[in-house]
Amino acid sequence: MGVVLRNLQKVVPLRRARLRRDVDTLRHILGVHKFDLGIICVDNNRIQQINNIYRKKNVPTDVLSFPFYEDLRPGKLPCPLHRDELNLGDIFLGVEFVMKQCQEESLDLHGALTVITAHGICHLLGYRHETEEEWTEMLQRESYILSEYNRLTGRHLEPLTKRCTQER
Amino acid sequence: MLKSVVRAVGSAVRISSASTTSITARALPRVCPTLCPPSSATTRPFTRSLWMLNNNGASSGFRPKLFTSKAFSPSVSCGCGGLHTEGDKAFGDFLSDEIKEERKIQKTKALPKMSGGWELEMNGTEAKLTRGLAGEKITVTFNVNNSIPPNFEEEIEQGQQKSAEEEPEIVSTPNFVVEVTKQGSKHSLVFDCHFPEDEMSHGEGEEESDIFAIREVSFQPEGDSDWKETSYTLNTDSLDWALYDHLMDFLADRGVDNTFADELMELSTAVEHQEYIKFLEDLQGFVKF
User: Fold this and answer.
1) Which Pfam families match (chain B) (predicted)?
2) Domains annotated on chain A, with CATH
């Protein structure tokens, strides 16, 4: 089925085709293009609501990942038995939150969304950043994905984990 | 964990083909699920059939008695030669109260404006929005008839238990047609769009739909009001999603985006309410005549 893209907000004008192309490029780099993936773009209210429900943090954020496989070892791809299980899960992008960050730092919105989606896909694939070791492992993976992405597209994107704190 | 959007899509698509049936009864709209997109569309509390069931507010006080002889021989209450029964009188009183209630919740008689330089033209229940953009003409038409989503049994129960402040609200979500005409072209590109919320699960509320979606795309002769069935029609149910996204971006570039869809809902809700009140007034006039 591929990438299911949903735009549930009206605050940020999004280019759907661009976002899909970027997400597809990331899936190819990671070798997970056979897996379905949901990308849901939401505003601050909605991501805050979801963040509160699932993480007990009543603040808006940039990305929330909901893995289909919850106990993956980082770097190991899932081994689905049925077509239904060719699914990585869903990534909620807080596009309003990301847009504000981009405005503050004069960054390109769709570039930032690509970086954040790469971060989200890493979470779907079992990467975490709760300990120093996990953080390093995830940063390495994100750096690889984005260096490949930059090589393929000529852009200059940097990993999100670089700017992460342990809080994230 | 959220129920995966990916897994929900298959069933949503199947339901969509059955969701276009016309609505014959005024009904409670769905209760907005937890994760349903927030809408700024002007809504109004449900005050139609439920209002009568509830009967706490203004009412005529009329209680029909079954099996009385009058039920079989209606009385003529005036000498004008027309039939004026007790039932007609009660009906007229009821309509008078209903109109009063509806006017009370009508925020303003003026229709809300669409941002983006759209011009509105009304023809009965049909609205036409037009704007020009660098040699292109974009027209959006919709009809407020049958534009209020159907209700669901469990939602009626929920609705009845809720307090007045939490009353569900009526929002008109009509299908709408976008026509893009380029200068000198014999054909318009026509998009048949809809608000897919009625396809959402009304239980868990975790299946996510776009605010509006394209159902079909075709070329139609420019300025021709008759739909040409022989034109190839692209159905989006089985479409390459990359192509679908380009079509959505194409509409967004012409001012038909989520903000537009939200404002259209607001406009349609106001028009529908206006037409409903007008209908009640006509009905009252007819019953009294």
Assistant:
1) MAM33
2) 3-163 (3.40.390.30)
